[in-house]
């Protein structure tokens, strides 16, 4: 099934032996539209496909992820009629940081969210895999996009002024061409949007008529203050100044 886009078409065409897919969902706009498009693919071409969802809750107070994903899954099922097999969640138990001065090995160890997410996906695969044949193992997908173009100088000026970001964000640099399918030992990991920026995802939301139904339910903000407000039940608003808010505003022209 080809999902047309002016930046790059996504040709989602899994071989018949691939019957299990794990979707990594955070509650953000990227993974939400990925899950929606996967649902259309299952509905129209692969009703035999089983879709599982993996979500990591960030370290408090940024531990709202699974609650947001549950809302998104309910809405996607409402819109498409497609249900998900199971939603797996796991809590990050220690804080991490984005220190661009750290040595590479220490930096990797200091990313408990990423490490916890990897452990969760590995455990899910062990639980659901049909057999031990590599060609039949579950595939897991992530919705990561690339950064806005470097020509968007105002965006980068605003980001550098208001929000200190770690070096990991530059792995998404707009000038870098990344592998979309990365085969590793005992796993198959796909990033269909890795060479597309968020404006391409805006195009998907518009073209598939879910900009008003699905997008407002997503959350991209990473500011601890707004996260605490969610936990306290005070507000669900984005901060408007962190990297993810500025990127969202740049791509969609709105936060909600």
Largest sheet: 6 strands, mixed
**How many DSSP E strands?**
8
Distance between the termini: 29 Å
Global outline: globular
Approximately how much helix is present in the residues?
A: 25-40%
State the order of secondary-structure elements, H for helix, E for strand: EEEHEHEHHEHEEHHH
Give the DSSP E fraction (strand runs of 2 or more residues): 5-15%
| Biggest sheet, spatial arrangement of strands | 5-4-3-6-8-7
> Residue-averaged pLDDT, rounded?
89
Regarding quaternary structure, what we see is single chain
Radius of gyration: 18 Å
Structural class category? alpha/beta
Q: Helical element count?
A: 8
Stretches with pLDDT under 50, minimum 5 residues = none
Describe this entry's structure for a reader:
- With 256 residues, this protein is an alpha/beta fold.
- It is built from 8 helices and 8 strands, in the order E-E-E-H-E-H-E-H-H-E-H-E-E-H-H-H.
- Helix 1 runs parallel beside helix 2 (65-80), helix 5 runs antiparallel to helix 8 (243-252) and helix 6 (198-207) crosses helix 8.
- The chain is globular, with a radius of gyration of 18 Å.
């Amino acid at each position: 099934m080809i999902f047309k886009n002016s930046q790059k078409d996504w040709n989602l065409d899994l071989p018949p032996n691939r019957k299990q897919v794990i979707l990594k969902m955070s509650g953000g706009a990227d993974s939400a539209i990925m899950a929606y498009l996967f649902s259309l693919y299952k509905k129209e071409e692969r009703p035999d496909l089983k879709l599982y969802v993996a979500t990591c809750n960030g370290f408090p107070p940024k531990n709202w992820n699974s609650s947001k994903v549950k809302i998104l899954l309910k809405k996607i099922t409402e819109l498409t009629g497609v249900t998900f097999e199971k939603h797996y969640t796991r809590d990050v138990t220690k804080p991490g940081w984005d220190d661009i001065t750290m040595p590479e090995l220490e930096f990797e160890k200091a990313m408990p969210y990423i490490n916890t997410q990897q452990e969760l996906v590995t455990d899910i695969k062990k639980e659901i895999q049909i057999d031990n044949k590599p060609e039949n193992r579950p595939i897991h997908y992530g919705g990561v996009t690339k950064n806005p173009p470097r020509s968007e100088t105002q965006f980068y000026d605003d980001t550098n002024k208001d929000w200190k970001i770690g070096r990991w964000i530059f792995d998404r640099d707009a000038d870098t061409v990344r592998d979309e399918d990365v085969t590793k030992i005992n796993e198959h990991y796909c990033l269909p949007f890795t060479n597309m920026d968020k404006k391409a995802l805006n195009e998907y939301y518009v073209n598939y008529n879910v900009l008003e139904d699905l997008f407002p339910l997503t959350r991209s903000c990473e500011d601890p203050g707004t996260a605490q407000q969610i936990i306290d039940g005070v507000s669900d608003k984005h901060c408007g100044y962190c990297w993810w808010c500025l990127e969202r505003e740049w791509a969609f022209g709105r936060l909600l």
